[in-house]
Amino acid sequence: MLKNIKNHLAVVGSLATLTVGNVAAAATTEIETGLTKTGNLETIIQSVMNTFMAIVGLATIVYLIYGGFMYLTSGGNAEKVTTAKNTIIYAIVGIIIIGAAYAIRGFVLDRLSITIPTGGI
What we know:
- By secondary structure, the protein is an all-alpha fold.
- The chain has one domain.
- The protein contains three helices and no strands.
- The radius of gyration is 18 Å and the shape is elongated.
- The relative contact order is 0.12.
- The mean pLDDT is about 75.
């Protein structure tokens, strides 16, 4: 169980690293060219948040599909069925957390009168 959690955290950490790399590349391009596509720090932060939430949301959906595949291929083995059910439950909880985080983010930004750029997730 602990090994599975470590593996899941490693995947999410890798996806987060990819997100940071994309933002760094965008910032470098902005500095080199002098042309600002994003405008200011606020917009860059919002783009990072949108990208990160999209990647984590995609990862949870992949885990949901993986859990379903594990369930279908368990062959009636009680241990494999339990592992598959736990994977599905954790994926659903992850999707709920992502949805709640997105809603809270929108609420806070709305109260701060910050517009959210469309084109995110």
